[in-house]
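Chain X:
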Amino acid sequence: MTWLWILIAVVVVLLLVGIYLFNRIIRLRNEVNTGWSNIDVQLKRRNDLIPNLVETVKAYAAHERGVFEEVTAARAAMANASSPAAAGEADSLLGQALGRRRRLGGMVDGFSGSRVLRFSGSRVLGGGGATARGDDVVLC
Protein backbone atom coordinates (compact mmCIF):
# COMPACT_ATOMS: atom_id res chain seq x y z
CA MET A 1 0.00 0.00 0.00
CA THR A 2 2.88 2.37 0.70
CA TRP A 3 4.17 1.80 -2.83
CA LEU A 4 0.89 3.08 -4.16
CA TRP A 5 1.20 6.31 -2.13
CA ILE A 6 4.77 6.75 -3.29
CA LEU A 7 3.73 6.21 -6.89
CA ILE A 8 0.87 8.72 -6.53
CA ALA A 9 3.28 11.26 -4.96
CA VAL A 10 5.79 10.81 -7.80
CA VAL A 11 3.03 11.22 -10.40
CA VAL A 12 1.75 14.37 -8.66
CA VAL A 13 5.27 15.83 -8.43
CA LEU A 14 5.91 15.05 -12.11
CA LEU A 15 2.57 16.60 -13.00
CA LEU A 16 3.39 19.77 -11.03
CA VAL A 17 6.85 20.00 -12.63
CA GLY A 18 5.26 19.54 -16.06
CA ILE A 19 2.73 22.31 -15.36
CA TYR A 20 5.52 24.60 -14.10
CA LEU A 21 7.66 23.96 -17.21
CA PHE A 22 4.70 24.44 -19.55
CA ASN A 23 3.81 27.75 -17.90
CA ARG A 24 7.44 28.89 -18.06
CA ILE A 25 7.64 28.06 -21.78
CA ILE A 26 4.41 29.97 -22.44
CA ARG A 27 5.69 32.97 -20.41
CA LEU A 28 8.99 32.99 -22.33
CA ARG A 29 7.13 32.74 -25.64
CA ASN A 30 4.98 35.71 -24.65
CA GLU A 31 8.07 37.73 -23.69
CA VAL A 32 9.65 36.96 -27.06
CA ASN A 33 6.46 38.02 -28.86
CA THR A 34 6.38 41.24 -26.82
CA GLY A 35 10.01 41.90 -27.68
CA TRP A 36 9.38 41.48 -31.39
CA SER A 37 6.27 43.62 -31.13
CA ASN A 38 8.34 46.39 -29.47
CA ILE A 39 10.85 46.20 -32.30
CA ASP A 40 8.05 46.41 -34.86
CA VAL A 41 6.58 49.46 -33.12
CA GLN A 42 9.98 51.19 -33.08
CA LEU A 43 10.56 50.49 -36.77
CA LYS A 44 7.11 51.81 -37.71
CA ARG A 45 7.59 54.96 -35.61
CA ARG A 46 11.01 55.53 -37.15
CA ASN A 47 9.52 55.12 -40.61
CA ASP A 48 6.75 57.59 -39.75
CA LEU A 49 9.29 60.17 -38.50
CA ILE A 50 11.45 60.20 -41.64
CA PRO A 51 9.15 62.54 -43.64
CA ASN A 52 9.18 64.99 -40.71
CA LEU A 53 12.97 64.92 -40.62
CA VAL A 54 13.15 65.47 -44.38
CA GLU A 55 10.82 68.48 -44.16
CA THR A 56 12.83 69.92 -41.26
CA VAL A 57 16.06 69.56 -43.20
CA LYS A 58 14.46 71.17 -46.26
CA ALA A 59 13.24 74.14 -44.19
CA TYR A 60 16.59 74.50 -42.47
CA ALA A 61 18.46 74.27 -45.79
CA ALA A 62 16.16 76.83 -47.44
CA HIS A 63 16.70 79.24 -44.57
CA GLU A 64 20.46 78.74 -44.63
CA ARG A 65 20.52 79.10 -48.41
CA GLY A 66 18.79 82.49 -48.13
CA VAL A 67 21.20 83.74 -45.48
CA PHE A 68 24.26 82.57 -47.40
CA GLU A 69 22.95 84.10 -50.63
CA GLU A 70 22.61 87.45 -48.83
CA VAL A 71 26.15 87.18 -47.48
CA THR A 72 27.50 86.19 -50.90
CA ALA A 73 25.69 89.05 -52.65
CA ALA A 74 26.90 91.57 -50.06
CA ARG A 75 30.47 90.24 -50.35
CA ALA A 76 30.34 90.47 -54.17
CA ALA A 77 28.98 94.03 -53.94
CA MET A 78 31.83 94.93 -51.60
CA ALA A 79 34.41 93.38 -53.94
CA ASN A 80 32.95 95.22 -56.95
CA ALA A 81 32.58 98.58 -55.20
CA SER A 82 34.08 101.36 -57.33
CA SER A 83 34.14 104.16 -54.78
CA PRO A 84 34.67 104.44 -51.03
CA ALA A 85 30.99 105.35 -50.57
CA ALA A 86 29.88 102.24 -52.47
CA ALA A 87 32.40 100.15 -50.50
CA GLY A 88 31.02 101.57 -47.24
CA GLU A 89 27.46 100.80 -48.26
CA ALA A 90 28.44 97.27 -49.36
CA ASP A 91 30.32 96.80 -46.09
CA SER A 92 27.20 97.86 -44.20
CA LEU A 93 25.11 95.32 -46.15
CA LEU A 94 27.71 92.64 -45.45
CA GLY A 95 27.71 93.50 -41.76
CA GLN A 96 23.92 93.32 -41.65
CA ALA A 97 23.86 89.96 -43.43
CA LEU A 98 26.54 88.52 -41.15
CA GLY A 99 24.82 89.98 -38.10
CA ARG A 100 21.54 88.39 -39.15
CA ARG A 101 23.37 85.08 -39.55
CA ARG A 102 24.92 85.34 -36.09
CA ARG A 103 21.79 86.68 -34.43
CA LEU A 104 19.49 84.02 -35.83
CA GLY A 105 22.05 81.28 -35.48
CA GLY A 106 20.12 79.00 -37.81
CA MET A 107 16.67 79.67 -36.39
CA VAL A 108 13.78 77.89 -38.09
CA ASP A 109 10.28 78.75 -36.84
CA GLY A 110 11.59 79.85 -33.46
CA PHE A 111 13.80 76.82 -32.85
CA SER A 112 17.49 76.47 -33.42
CA GLY A 113 17.90 74.48 -36.61
CA SER A 114 20.66 72.33 -35.21
CA ARG A 115 18.56 71.60 -32.12
CA VAL A 116 15.58 70.62 -34.27
CA LEU A 117 17.78 68.40 -36.41
CA ARG A 118 19.37 66.76 -33.35
CA PHE A 119 15.91 66.12 -31.85
CA SER A 120 14.43 64.72 -35.08
CA GLY A 121 17.56 62.78 -35.93
CA SER A 122 17.78 61.19 -32.50
CA ARG A 123 14.19 60.01 -32.78
CA VAL A 124 14.69 58.59 -36.26
CA LEU A 125 17.97 56.91 -35.33
CA GLY A 126 16.41 55.11 -32.40
CA GLY A 127 16.74 57.57 -29.56
CA GLY A 128 13.43 56.62 -28.01
CA GLY A 129 9.79 55.97 -28.44
CA ALA A 130 6.79 54.10 -27.18
CA THR A 131 6.79 50.35 -26.98
CA ALA A 132 3.97 47.84 -27.31
CA ARG A 133 3.55 47.96 -23.54
CA GLY A 134 2.84 51.70 -23.70
CA ASP A 135 6.06 52.85 -22.02
CA ASP A 136 6.76 56.56 -21.91
CA VAL A 137 8.67 58.16 -24.77
CA VAL A 138 12.29 58.67 -23.72
CA LEU A 139 14.79 60.60 -25.82
CA CYS A 140 18.47 59.93 -25.51
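Chain Y:
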Amino acid sequence: MSLDRPVPAWARALDVLTVVALLLFSIAALFGAVTLYVGGARLTLRATHALFLAIASAAIRHAAHPEFPLPHRLAGARARLASNVPLSAAMAAISSRVAVLVAGYVAVLTIGVLPPATGLELSGDPLFNLPARFDAGWYGGIALDGYSFQGRFDRQQNLAFFPAMPLLMRTVGVAAGASQPTAPRPMRMARGLWAGVAIAVIAFAWASAYLVRLARDTIGEPLAPAAVALMAAYPFAVFFSAPYTESLFVLGAIATFYHFGRQQWGYAAAWGLVVGLTRPNGCFLTLPLLVLLAERVAKTENRGPRTEDRGANGEGRLAKGEGRGAILKGAIVAAMPVFGMLAYSAYVHQVTGSWFGWARLHEAWGRTFGGLTPIFRAPSQHKYDTADYNVVDEAFGLGLRALADVDHDGEQGGEGDGGDEAGEEEEGEAGEAASHGVLDGRAWGKVASVTFRVTAYRRGTHSACQIPV
Protein backbone atom coordinates (compact mmCIF):
# COMPACT_ATOMS: atom_id res chain seq x y z
CA MET A 1 0.00 0.00 0.00
CA SER A 2 1.43 3.39 -0.94
CA LEU A 3 2.06 6.06 1.68
CA ASP A 4 -0.46 8.46 0.15
CA ARG A 5 -3.40 6.05 0.55
CA PRO A 6 -5.25 6.56 3.84
CA VAL A 7 -6.14 3.75 6.21
CA PRO A 8 -9.85 2.91 5.86
CA ALA A 9 -12.16 4.28 8.53
CA TRP A 10 -13.23 0.81 9.66
CA ALA A 11 -9.58 -0.20 10.15
CA ARG A 12 -8.92 2.93 12.23
CA ALA A 13 -12.00 2.14 14.31
CA LEU A 14 -10.69 -1.38 14.99
CA ASP A 15 -7.32 0.09 16.02
CA VAL A 16 -9.06 2.41 18.48
CA LEU A 17 -11.11 -0.48 19.82
CA THR A 18 -7.93 -2.51 20.35
CA VAL A 19 -6.24 0.29 22.30
CA VAL A 20 -9.34 0.94 24.43
CA ALA A 21 -9.72 -2.77 25.15
CA LEU A 22 -6.08 -3.00 26.24
CA LEU A 23 -6.57 -0.05 28.57
CA LEU A 24 -9.68 -1.63 30.06
CA PHE A 25 -7.76 -4.88 30.46
CA SER A 26 -5.03 -3.08 32.41
CA ILE A 27 -7.56 -1.36 34.68
CA ALA A 28 -9.56 -4.54 35.26
CA ALA A 29 -6.42 -6.57 35.93
CA LEU A 30 -5.26 -4.08 38.57
CA PHE A 31 -8.52 -3.02 40.20
CA GLY A 32 -11.12 -5.62 39.28
CA ALA A 33 -14.03 -5.67 36.86
CA VAL A 34 -15.03 -2.44 35.11
CA THR A 35 -18.70 -1.51 35.07
CA LEU A 36 -19.95 0.65 32.20
CA TYR A 37 -23.40 2.12 31.61
CA VAL A 38 -24.65 2.38 28.05
CA GLY A 39 -28.00 4.10 28.09
CA GLY A 40 -29.92 2.28 30.79
CA ALA A 41 -28.00 -0.98 30.40
CA ARG A 42 -25.27 -2.07 32.79
CA LEU A 43 -22.20 -3.73 31.29
CA THR A 44 -19.62 -5.48 33.48
CA LEU A 45 -16.28 -6.02 31.77
CA ARG A 46 -13.72 -8.35 33.34
CA ALA A 47 -10.04 -8.55 32.47
CA THR A 48 -10.53 -11.73 30.40
CA HIS A 49 -13.34 -10.09 28.42
CA ALA A 50 -11.23 -7.02 27.65
CA LEU A 51 -8.23 -9.12 26.62
CA PHE A 52 -10.37 -11.27 24.31
CA LEU A 53 -11.87 -8.13 22.74
CA ALA A 54 -8.40 -6.66 22.13
CA ILE A 55 -7.07 -9.85 20.53
CA ALA A 56 -10.16 -10.33 18.38
CA SER A 57 -10.25 -6.77 17.06
CA ALA A 58 -6.50 -6.82 16.33
CA ALA A 59 -6.77 -10.15 14.51
CA ILE A 60 -9.70 -9.04 12.36
CA ARG A 61 -7.96 -5.79 11.50
CA HIS A 62 -4.68 -7.47 10.54
CA ALA A 63 -6.35 -10.19 8.49
CA ALA A 64 -8.55 -7.78 6.53
CA HIS A 65 -6.08 -4.89 6.19
CA PRO A 66 -2.47 -5.84 7.02
CA GLU A 67 -0.98 -2.60 5.66
CA PHE A 68 0.12 -0.01 8.22
CA PRO A 69 -0.57 -2.12 11.31
CA LEU A 70 -1.33 -0.63 14.70
CA PRO A 71 2.30 -0.64 16.00
CA HIS A 72 3.44 1.39 12.98
CA ARG A 73 0.56 3.83 13.38
CA LEU A 74 1.36 4.26 17.08
CA ALA A 75 4.99 5.00 16.25
CA GLY A 76 3.90 7.63 13.74
CA ALA A 77 1.51 9.13 16.29
CA ARG A 78 4.35 9.33 18.79
CA ALA A 79 6.52 11.20 16.30
CA ARG A 80 3.71 13.65 15.55
CA LEU A 81 3.12 14.10 19.27
CA ALA A 82 6.76 14.99 19.83
CA SER A 83 6.53 17.73 17.21
CA ASN A 84 3.28 19.14 18.64
CA VAL A 85 4.35 21.04 21.76
CA PRO A 86 0.85 21.87 23.12
CA LEU A 87 -0.33 18.29 22.66
CA SER A 88 2.84 16.97 24.29
CA ALA A 89 2.25 19.30 27.24
CA ALA A 90 -1.32 18.04 27.58
CA MET A 91 -0.20 14.41 27.60
CA ALA A 92 2.51 15.19 30.15
CA ALA A 93 -0.10 16.92 32.31
CA ILE A 94 -2.37 13.86 32.20
CA SER A 95 0.56 11.65 33.17
CA SER A 96 1.34 13.87 36.15
CA ARG A 97 -2.27 13.73 37.36
CA VAL A 98 -2.43 9.95 37.03
CA ALA A 99 0.83 9.72 38.98
CA VAL A 100 -0.69 11.79 41.78
CA LEU A 101 -3.76 9.54 41.90
CA VAL A 102 -1.64 6.39 41.97
CA ALA A 103 0.53 7.85 44.74
CA GLY A 104 -2.58 8.74 46.73
CA TYR A 105 -4.02 5.27 46.30
CA VAL A 106 -0.78 3.59 47.37
CA ALA A 107 -0.56 5.93 50.37
CA VAL A 108 -4.08 5.02 51.47
CA LEU A 109 -3.29 1.30 51.14
CA THR A 110 0.05 1.41 52.93
CA ILE A 111 -0.35 4.25 55.44
CA GLY A 112 -4.09 4.62 55.76
CA VAL A 113 -6.19 7.63 56.69
CA LEU A 114 -7.12 8.83 60.15
CA PRO A 115 -10.90 8.56 60.74
CA PRO A 116 -11.43 12.34 61.21
CA ALA A 117 -9.70 13.05 57.88
CA THR A 118 -11.37 10.31 55.89
CA GLY A 119 -14.08 12.56 54.51
CA LEU A 120 -17.02 10.75 52.97
CA GLU A 121 -17.11 7.02 53.55
CA LEU A 122 -18.90 5.97 50.39
CA SER A 123 -17.41 2.52 50.05
CA GLY A 124 -15.12 0.10 51.79
CA ASP A 125 -13.07 -0.04 48.60
CA PRO A 126 -10.22 2.49 49.05
CA LEU A 127 -9.99 3.07 45.29
CA PHE A 128 -13.69 3.77 44.94
CA ASN A 129 -13.58 6.07 47.93
CA LEU A 130 -10.35 7.85 46.93
CA PRO A 131 -11.86 11.14 45.62
CA ALA A 132 -14.32 11.43 48.55
CA ARG A 133 -12.44 14.09 50.48
CA PHE A 134 -13.48 17.42 52.02
CA ASP A 135 -15.39 19.75 49.65
CA ALA A 136 -15.79 17.01 47.03
CA GLY A 137 -18.94 15.94 48.86
CA TRP A 138 -20.51 19.35 48.33
CA TYR A 139 -19.87 19.29 44.59
CA GLY A 140 -21.07 15.70 44.34
CA GLY A 141 -24.23 16.49 46.27
CA ILE A 142 -25.07 19.42 43.99
CA ALA A 143 -24.45 17.24 40.93
CA LEU A 144 -26.84 14.59 42.23
CA ASP A 145 -29.59 16.59 43.92
CA GLY A 146 -29.18 20.25 42.91
CA TYR A 147 -29.11 23.26 45.21
CA SER A 148 -31.11 23.66 48.41
CA PHE A 149 -31.61 26.36 51.04
CA GLN A 150 -32.68 25.93 54.66
CA GLY A 151 -33.93 29.47 55.11
CA ARG A 152 -31.01 30.64 57.23
CA PHE A 153 -27.40 31.71 56.66
CA ASP A 154 -25.71 30.40 59.80
CA ARG A 155 -25.47 26.81 58.55
CA GLN A 156 -23.17 25.33 55.93
CA GLN A 157 -25.15 24.88 52.70
CA ASN A 158 -24.32 24.04 49.10
CA LEU A 159 -25.38 27.44 47.68
CA ALA A 160 -21.94 28.67 48.74
CA PHE A 161 -20.44 26.68 45.83
CA PHE A 162 -20.61 28.00 42.27
CA PRO A 163 -22.36 25.89 39.60
CA ALA A 164 -19.91 25.30 36.72
CA MET A 165 -18.12 22.25 38.17
CA PRO A 166 -21.25 20.52 39.59
CA LEU A 167 -23.03 21.04 36.27
CA LEU A 168 -20.21 19.33 34.39
CA MET A 169 -20.11 16.53 36.98
CA ARG A 170 -23.83 15.98 36.56
CA THR A 171 -23.46 15.79 32.76
CA VAL A 172 -20.44 13.49 32.69
CA GLY A 173 -21.76 11.47 35.61
CA VAL A 174 -24.59 10.19 33.46
CA ALA A 175 -22.11 8.07 31.49
CA ALA A 176 -20.60 6.80 34.75
CA GLY A 177 -23.96 5.69 36.14
CA ALA A 178 -24.35 8.46 38.70
CA SER A 179 -27.94 9.04 37.62
CA GLN A 180 -29.08 5.41 37.88
CA PRO A 181 -32.15 5.53 40.17
CA THR A 182 -31.74 1.90 41.26
CA ALA A 183 -28.17 2.34 42.47
CA PRO A 184 -27.56 3.17 46.16
CA ARG A 185 -26.81 6.82 46.83
CA PRO A 186 -23.21 6.22 48.04
CA MET A 187 -22.53 4.34 44.82
CA ARG A 188 -24.01 7.14 42.72
CA MET A 189 -22.03 9.72 44.67
CA ALA A 190 -18.75 7.84 44.14
CA ARG A 191 -19.41 7.57 40.43
CA GLY A 192 -20.17 11.27 40.25
CA LEU A 193 -16.95 12.12 42.10
CA TRP A 194 -14.88 9.99 39.75
CA ALA A 195 -16.57 11.82 36.88
CA GLY A 196 -15.34 15.00 38.59
CA VAL A 197 -11.81 13.57 38.70
CA ALA A 198 -11.98 12.90 34.96
CA ILE A 199 -13.16 16.48 34.36
CA ALA A 200 -10.35 17.86 36.52
CA VAL A 201 -7.66 15.86 34.73
CA ILE A 202 -8.92 16.76 31.25
CA ALA A 203 -9.31 20.43 32.20
CA PHE A 204 -5.76 20.51 33.56
CA ALA A 205 -4.42 18.94 30.36
CA TRP A 206 -6.32 21.50 28.28
CA ALA A 207 -5.03 24.30 30.50
CA SER A 208 -1.48 23.02 30.02
CA ALA A 209 -1.86 23.18 26.25
CA TYR A 210 -3.09 26.76 26.51
CA LEU A 211 -0.28 27.68 28.90
CA VAL A 212 2.34 26.39 26.45
CA ARG A 213 0.88 28.56 23.69
CA LEU A 214 0.77 31.57 25.97
CA ALA A 215 4.30 31.01 27.28
CA ARG A 216 5.58 30.43 23.75
CA ASP A 217 4.54 33.99 22.89
CA THR A 218 6.33 35.44 25.91
CA ILE A 219 9.35 33.38 26.97
CA GLY A 220 9.89 31.44 23.75
CA GLU A 221 9.12 27.91 22.62
CA PRO A 222 12.21 26.23 24.17
CA LEU A 223 11.19 27.33 27.66
CA ALA A 224 7.41 27.05 27.23
CA PRO A 225 7.14 23.39 28.43
CA ALA A 226 8.90 24.42 31.65
CA ALA A 227 5.89 26.58 32.52
CA VAL A 228 3.67 23.48 32.49
CA ALA A 229 6.21 21.49 34.49
CA LEU A 230 6.31 24.19 37.17
CA MET A 231 2.53 24.37 37.33
CA ALA A 232 2.26 20.59 37.65
CA ALA A 233 4.99 20.46 40.31
CA TYR A 234 3.51 23.22 42.48
CA PRO A 235 2.66 21.57 45.85
CA PHE A 236 -0.99 22.56 45.73
CA ALA A 237 -1.28 21.11 42.23
CA VAL A 238 -2.59 18.01 44.00
CA PHE A 239 -6.01 19.67 43.73
CA PHE A 240 -5.76 19.39 39.94
CA SER A 241 -6.32 15.66 40.44
CA ALA A 242 -9.39 16.07 42.66
CA PRO A 243 -13.07 16.77 41.87
CA TYR A 244 -12.51 20.42 42.78
CA THR A 245 -12.79 23.65 40.78
CA GLU A 246 -9.04 24.35 40.53
CA SER A 247 -8.49 22.70 37.13
CA LEU A 248 -11.54 24.24 35.53
CA PHE A 249 -10.64 27.64 36.97
CA VAL A 250 -7.05 27.63 35.72
CA LEU A 251 -8.24 26.43 32.30
CA GLY A 252 -10.75 29.25 32.02
CA ALA A 253 -8.30 31.90 33.24
CA ILE A 254 -5.46 30.97 30.89
CA ALA A 255 -7.79 30.45 27.91
CA THR A 256 -9.40 33.84 28.53
CA PHE A 257 -6.02 35.57 28.51
CA TYR A 258 -4.88 33.66 25.45
CA HIS A 259 -7.89 34.60 23.31
CA PHE A 260 -8.21 38.10 24.78
CA GLY A 261 -4.66 38.90 23.71
CA ARG A 262 -5.54 37.90 20.15
CA GLN A 263 -8.83 39.82 20.11
CA GLN A 264 -10.73 36.57 19.62
CA TRP A 265 -13.64 38.04 21.52
CA GLY A 266 -16.09 35.16 21.22
CA TYR A 267 -13.76 32.57 22.73
CA ALA A 268 -12.50 35.01 25.35
CA ALA A 269 -16.05 35.89 26.38
CA ALA A 270 -17.08 32.24 26.68
CA TRP A 271 -14.08 31.31 28.82
CA GLY A 272 -14.48 34.45 30.92
CA LEU A 273 -18.08 33.47 31.64
CA VAL A 274 -16.91 30.00 32.68
CA VAL A 275 -14.43 31.56 35.11
CA GLY A 276 -17.15 33.72 36.65
CA LEU A 277 -19.37 30.66 37.15
CA THR A 278 -16.61 28.48 38.59
CA ARG A 279 -15.33 30.23 41.72
CA PRO A 280 -16.35 33.27 43.81
CA ASN A 281 -13.05 35.02 43.07
CA GLY A 282 -13.42 34.46 39.33
CA CYS A 283 -14.97 37.92 38.92
CA PHE A 284 -11.62 39.48 39.80
CA LEU A 285 -10.26 38.28 36.45
CA THR A 286 -11.99 41.32 34.96
CA LEU A 287 -9.43 43.66 36.54
CA PRO A 288 -6.26 42.40 34.78
CA LEU A 289 -8.19 42.08 31.51
CA LEU A 290 -9.14 45.75 31.71
CA VAL A 291 -5.51 46.59 32.49
CA LEU A 292 -4.39 44.74 29.35
CA LEU A 293 -7.01 46.57 27.32
CA ALA A 294 -5.92 49.95 28.70
CA GLU A 295 -2.28 49.09 28.01
CA ARG A 296 -3.10 48.25 24.41
CA VAL A 297 -4.99 51.51 23.93
CA ALA A 298 -2.16 53.50 25.54
CA LYS A 299 0.45 51.90 23.30
CA THR A 300 -1.64 52.65 20.23
CA GLU A 301 -2.06 56.30 21.19
CA ASN A 302 1.64 56.69 21.96
CA ARG A 303 2.54 55.18 18.61
CA GLY A 304 0.41 57.76 16.84
CA PRO A 305 -1.56 57.28 13.63
CA ARG A 306 0.27 56.01 10.60
CA THR A 307 -0.37 57.36 7.12
CA GLU A 308 -2.38 54.34 6.12
CA ASP A 309 -4.44 54.66 9.33
CA ARG A 310 -5.81 58.14 8.52
CA GLY A 311 -9.43 58.72 7.69
CA ALA A 312 -10.90 60.27 4.54
CA ASN A 313 -10.50 63.78 5.96
CA GLY A 314 -6.97 63.18 7.17
CA GLU A 315 -7.92 62.67 10.82
CA GLY A 316 -5.89 60.14 12.80
CA ARG A 317 -7.50 56.94 13.96
CA LEU A 318 -6.36 53.84 15.81
CA ALA A 319 -4.88 50.90 13.96
CA LYS A 320 -7.29 48.44 12.40
CA GLY A 321 -9.05 46.32 15.01
CA GLU A 322 -8.25 48.78 17.83
CA GLY A 323 -10.79 51.53 17.19
CA ARG A 324 -13.66 52.44 19.48
CA GLY A 325 -15.64 49.39 18.43
CA ALA A 326 -12.79 47.05 19.37
CA ILE A 327 -12.28 48.86 22.68
CA LEU A 328 -15.98 48.50 23.49
CA LYS A 329 -15.91 44.81 22.60
CA GLY A 330 -12.81 44.32 24.71
CA ALA A 331 -14.44 46.03 27.69
CA ILE A 332 -17.57 43.87 27.39
CA VAL A 333 -15.49 40.71 27.11
CA ALA A 334 -13.36 41.75 30.08
CA ALA A 335 -16.55 42.09 32.13
CA MET A 336 -17.76 38.54 31.37
CA PRO A 337 -16.31 37.04 34.59
CA VAL A 338 -18.35 39.61 36.52
CA PHE A 339 -21.43 38.75 34.45
CA GLY A 340 -20.95 35.09 35.37
CA MET A 341 -20.80 35.92 39.06
CA LEU A 342 -23.85 38.18 38.77
CA ALA A 343 -25.80 35.47 36.93
CA TYR A 344 -25.26 33.05 39.79
CA SER A 345 -25.97 35.81 42.30
CA ALA A 346 -29.32 36.41 40.58
CA TYR A 347 -30.18 32.74 41.02
CA VAL A 348 -29.14 32.85 44.67
CA HIS A 349 -31.28 35.96 45.14
CA GLN A 350 -34.27 34.11 43.73
CA VAL A 351 -33.73 31.24 46.17
CA THR A 352 -32.65 33.11 49.30
CA GLY A 353 -33.77 36.71 48.82
CA SER A 354 -30.15 37.89 49.12
CA TRP A 355 -28.15 38.89 46.05
CA PHE A 356 -24.87 37.77 47.54
CA GLY A 357 -26.24 35.03 49.73
CA TRP A 358 -23.44 32.74 48.58
CA ALA A 359 -20.96 35.11 50.26
CA ARG A 360 -23.00 35.26 53.46
CA LEU A 361 -23.09 31.47 53.59
CA HIS A 362 -19.29 31.34 53.75
CA GLU A 363 -19.56 32.83 57.22
CA ALA A 364 -20.94 29.46 58.36
CA TRP A 365 -17.44 28.09 57.73
CA GLY A 366 -15.94 30.94 59.73
CA ARG A 367 -14.76 32.68 56.57
CA THR A 368 -14.91 36.43 57.05
CA PHE A 369 -12.69 39.00 55.39
CA GLY A 370 -10.20 40.23 57.96
CA GLY A 371 -7.31 41.11 55.68
CA LEU A 372 -5.77 39.69 52.56
CA THR A 373 -4.48 36.52 54.20
CA PRO A 374 -5.72 34.53 57.24
CA ILE A 375 -2.39 34.18 59.05
CA PHE A 376 -3.30 35.41 62.51
CA ARG A 377 -3.91 33.26 65.57
CA ALA A 378 -6.95 31.02 65.09
CA PRO A 379 -8.08 27.69 66.56
CA SER A 380 -8.83 26.00 63.21
CA GLN A 381 -6.58 24.68 60.48
CA HIS A 382 -7.86 27.02 57.77
CA LYS A 383 -7.29 30.13 60.00
CA TYR A 384 -10.42 31.92 58.84
CA ASP A 385 -11.87 32.14 62.35
CA THR A 386 -9.28 34.65 63.61
CA ALA A 387 -9.08 34.93 67.40
CA ASP A 388 -6.35 37.60 67.71
CA TYR A 389 -5.36 39.93 64.87
CA ASN A 390 -2.27 41.09 66.78
CA VAL A 391 -0.50 37.72 66.90
CA VAL A 392 0.56 35.58 63.94
CA ASP A 393 -0.46 31.96 64.39
CA GLU A 394 2.17 29.53 65.66
CA ALA A 395 1.66 27.37 62.56
CA PHE A 396 3.49 29.92 60.40
CA GLY A 397 6.80 29.73 62.24
CA LEU A 398 8.83 32.00 64.48
CA GLY A 399 10.40 34.04 61.67
CA LEU A 400 7.10 35.31 60.31
CA ARG A 401 5.76 35.88 63.81
CA ALA A 402 8.76 38.02 64.71
CA LEU A 403 8.34 39.97 61.47
CA ALA A 404 4.62 40.62 61.83
CA ASP A 405 4.15 40.67 65.63
CA VAL A 406 3.19 44.34 65.99
CA ASP A 407 0.97 46.15 68.48
CA HIS A 408 -1.94 48.44 67.78
CA ASP A 409 0.36 51.49 67.45
CA GLY A 410 2.26 49.90 64.54
CA GLU A 411 5.47 49.54 66.62
CA GLN A 412 7.52 46.41 67.11
CA GLY A 413 6.05 44.31 69.93
CA GLY A 414 7.93 44.09 73.20
CA GLU A 415 10.26 46.59 74.84
CA GLY A 416 12.60 48.43 72.50
CA ASP A 417 16.25 49.28 72.98
CA GLY A 418 15.69 53.03 73.19
CA GLY A 419 16.37 53.65 69.48
CA ASP A 420 14.80 56.25 67.24
CA GLU A 421 10.98 56.20 67.53
CA ALA A 422 10.47 57.04 63.87
CA GLY A 423 12.65 54.14 62.84
CA GLU A 424 10.68 51.83 65.11
CA GLU A 425 7.41 53.04 63.62
CA GLU A 426 8.64 52.42 60.06
CA GLU A 427 9.84 49.00 61.15
CA GLY A 428 6.41 48.16 62.57
CA GLU A 429 4.62 49.33 59.43
CA ALA A 430 6.94 47.24 57.26
CA GLY A 431 6.26 44.20 59.41
CA GLU A 432 2.53 44.73 59.20
CA ALA A 433 2.67 45.12 55.42
CA ALA A 434 4.74 41.96 55.12
CA SER A 435 2.24 40.04 57.21
CA HIS A 436 -0.53 40.97 54.77
CA GLY A 437 1.54 39.91 51.76
CA VAL A 438 2.07 36.27 52.66
CA LEU A 439 0.15 33.70 50.62
CA ASP A 440 -1.56 30.99 52.57
CA GLY A 441 -1.42 28.32 49.88
CA ARG A 442 -4.84 27.33 48.54
CA ALA A 443 -6.65 29.51 51.11
CA TRP A 444 -5.68 32.62 49.12
CA GLY A 445 -7.94 31.40 46.34
CA LYS A 446 -10.95 32.11 48.56
CA VAL A 447 -10.16 35.83 48.69
CA ALA A 448 -8.26 36.87 45.58
CA SER A 449 -6.38 35.49 42.59
CA VAL A 450 -3.05 33.73 42.75
CA THR A 451 -0.82 35.15 40.03
CA PHE A 452 1.56 33.42 37.67
CA ARG A 453 4.13 35.92 36.43
CA VAL A 454 5.34 35.13 32.95
CA THR A 455 8.26 37.39 32.07
CA ALA A 456 9.25 38.16 28.52
CA TYR A 457 12.14 40.03 27.00
CA ARG A 458 11.39 41.49 23.61
CA ARG A 459 13.87 43.67 21.76
CA GLY A 460 15.66 44.49 24.98
CA THR A 461 12.50 45.60 26.82
CA HIS A 462 11.05 43.89 29.86
CA SER A 463 7.34 43.09 29.89
CA ALA A 464 5.24 40.90 32.09
CA CYS A 465 1.91 39.14 31.81
CA GLN A 466 0.09 38.27 35.02
CA ILE A 467 -2.34 35.38 34.83
CA PRO A 468 -4.74 34.95 37.78
CA VAL A 469 -5.44 31.24 38.37
